[in-house]
Amino acid sequence: MRAFADITEALSALAVEVPSWAYGNSGTRFKVFGSPGTPRTVEEKVADAATVHRFTGLAPSVALHIPWDLVDDFGALRRNAEDLGVRIGTINSNTFQDDDYKLGALTHTDPKIRQKAIDHHFECIDVMHATGSRDLKIWLAEGTNYPGQGDLRARQDRLHEGLSTIYDRLADDQRLVLEYKFFEPAFYHTDVPDWGTSYVQVAALGERAMVCLDTGHHAPGTNIEFIVAQLLRLGKLGSFDFNSRFYADDDLIVGAADPYQLYRILVEVVRGGGYGPGSDVALMLDQCHNIEKKIPGQIRSVLNVQEMLARALLLDREALAAAQEEGDVLLANEIFMDAFYTDVRADLAHWREERGLPGDPMRAYVGSGHQERIEDERVGGTQAGWG
Ligand code: PSV
Ligand code: MN
Ligand code: MN
Question: Which Gene3D superfamilies match (predicted)?
Fold first, then answer.
């Protein structure tokens, strides 16, 4: 196995984008619990993201969701973020909370509704210009509930047409990332259910259209690291939405349900050149904190990514490759597991302290009094966007 000293420089490249909606109140279909200290404005969500960055050094950008995060002046929001030491990252569109989209948005049979959905994406691109964002992330809640309800193939054609129109509107330094999800809110079929469909759709657009992989959007048992390897091989992995799940799209803290899976994914990211200088894969969180405090929930999340990344970087790739070449099944697996089982927490604490960060960001946050302060100051925080 490699020594921790060999990976300290590589570790410095880690940047995990946090979602603005992680700071709002969220819940399930059954209940949204309000929590004290919840942001009342977009500016306060950005401030919370900046707090996560201040304690960890790992979260330099925050993703916005439009229209949840609509403000009058995105230029001012951008400056405000920069003053706090972070920047505005991915802009997420939203075509899932408008009655007009009940039967589809970009795939709807009515051209007026399709145009409305396209116009919404144009508005998102305007926001990107003001915020300096690179990525437009599109997740479409489109699909059908009953066999026969829609023409599956015609819907793909309309999807292509809509995506092309949106893609053509992007500037040369902007990208479109298309997220897939195998079910929900539609239950019979989803128009972008899997990486293959997302790949086919973005490949038809051009070089700056990529796939977004949300770790919670697969059927149980799916080998996600294989998808990562394949998309990197094809040069089409644009971004991740990290979270963890036990059953469905649970949006729990990344690495909480299955840290080994996160390790396996990050091994493929590193192996495929998806991390570090020269890579433009965006590592993002897409999570909600329904019952736990939100800022420390996000701190825990970015630390989990860092911890599993450190283990992935510790993997002795040369020894692994040699064992694979030899066909030594057990040795190869042992080498792979050795890095996973390495407890890197003390080394990471030291690494942080050397960089002027708290060795234990979770305890430092609790000790800082910040949570009590925002709970006193903020009365009447808003929901994440749902419900
Ligand atoms: C959909 O389940 C999703 O993962 C998409 O990324 C959305 O933008 C996000 O959740 C927030 O609802
Ligand atoms: Mn997502
Ligand atoms: Mn999701």
Answer: Divalent-metal-dependent TIM barrel enzymes
Closest Cα to atom 11, ligand 1: which residue? Answer: 286
* CA-based nearest residue to 341, from 301, 371, 320, 314: 314
Nearest CA to ligand 1 atom 9: 286
The reported pLDDT for the residue numbered 379 is 82
Cα first-last separation, the chain: 48
CB contact set of 236 (below 8 Å; sequence gap of 6+): 199, 202, 203, 210, 211
- Could you tell me which residues come within 8 angstroms of residue 241 by beta carbon, excluding any fewer than 6 positions away? 179, 212, 213, 214, 215, 216, 217, 284, 285, 286
Q: What is the pTM of this model?
A: 0.97
- Sketch out the chain's domains with CATH numbers: 14-311 (3.20.20.150)
Give the Å distance between the CA of 111 and the centre of ligand 2: 27
Ligand 1 contacts (CB < 6 A) are 92, 139, 179, 181, 214, 241, 249, 286
